[in-house]
Design a protein that fits this description.
With 326 residues, the chain is α+β, with helices and mostly antiparallel strands. It is built from nine helices and nine strands. Helices cover 39% and strands 14% of the residues.
């Protein structure tokens, strides 16, 4: 459930008064998502998304997130955009939370992603990376490699309660990633959370990207590594090389990867899987049952990590380097 802060109709009417979006007809909470409270709002002029930013999202980061949406839309990418009030504001306050009204994006996320979805995702991600090159604001990745050690230190004492031997395994993997993490690769604004539920389709056509609240400046190839973890494993844990090939090939039709990026992908995929394992593990160990934060099984991404540790080159994912887009 992703409605952590409830609102009354009277509160909502007062909040919407400065917006030129028509008369409020109805609203309802949206269950999907884990970070913020989201509502689908219907007015006499159409549908909108109301987002209340909860404590996990820092207020100082909101200009980056909201500005990025507008920047990407101006560059021709399909994504939600913040609605301005009559005096030009995009951020207000509702029920004690920072809040914004966002345009509604048509489409549905794929519950069973296929290779065609992955190829379109790759193209959209590359366009995103190119479009963000001249975005003026900057936000460092608060969940990149430098953040994993402090997070692990909070989890390590209880890790073996989740699985025996977990503490030694994760400590060894984290230490190796810290020592080998690449630098100097092409970087810019990345989404950093392009899971299937953040990518909308209308039929086979990708209709837009949503949920930019982990977006930041980091390695482009790291964004690809996140998607290898999020899109290319089946429910039984098996890696689907066909999907991985489609994702990489789609990306390279728009932005060809440099050789150093290709060489780094297996290590970056290990890092991406560890990042999601650690944030899930922290919630698993610290959030009490019944709390409003959604707890997800951390072991799914540890299994991904174990798989990526067996990979030495992108070719082992099934990607034929001789047939790359020129």
């Amino acid at each position: 459930m992703a409605v952590y802060t409830d609102i009354s109709e009277a509160e909502l009417r007062d909040f919407l008064a400065p917006y030129d979006i028509g008369e409020l007809l109805s609203y309802k909470g949206i269950a999907e998502g884990v970070e913020n409270s989201n509502f689908l709002v219907h007015t006499s002029q159409g549908s909108f998304i109301l987002t209340l930013y909860e404590k996990r999202v820092e207020r100082k980061d909101l200009p980056f997130f909201l500005g990025l949406m507008e920047h990407l839309a101006q560059k021709g990418l399909t994504c939600p955009i913040p609605i301005h009030t009559g005096d030009g504001a995009v951020l207000g306050e509702l029920a004690g939370r920072p809040a914004a009204v966002i345009s509604f994006l048509e489409g549905m996320w794929p519950r069973r992603p296929m290779a065609g979805h992955c190829r379109e995702l790759g193209k959209a991600m590359a366009r995103f990376h190119l479009a963000g090159r001249d975005f003026e604001l900057r936000r460092d990745n608060a969940l990149s490699v430098a953040a994993w050690r402090p997070l692990w230190d909070l989890c390590a004492p209880r890790a073996d309660s989740v699985q025996k031997g977990l503490a030694l395994e994760v400590e060894a993997e984290l230490s190796e990633l810290e020592q080998r993490w690449p630098s100097g690769l092409p970087e810019g604004v990345i989404h950093a959370d392009l899971f299937p539920d953040n990518v909308f389709f209308l039929g086979e056509r990708l209709s837009g990207l949503i949920d930019f609240y982990f977006a930041c400046n980091d390695l482009f190839a790291y964004d690809i590594a996140v998607c290898l973890n999020a899109w290319c494993f089946e429910k039984d844990g098996a890696f689907n090389g066909t999907k991985a090939v489609a994702l990489l090939a789609g990306y390279e039709t728009i932005r060809p990867l440099e050789q150093e990026e290709i060489d780094a992908l297996p290590l970056l995929a290990r890092g991406a899987s560890l990042r999601f394992f650690l944030t899930r593990l922290y919630d698993w160990l610290t959030v009490p049952d019944g709390a409003m934060v959604v707890k997800k099984d951390p072991m799914e991404f540890l299994r991904h990590s174990r798989f990526h540790r067996t990979i030495r080159t992108v070719g082992a994912y099934g990607y034929d380097l001789s047939e790359r887009a020129q």
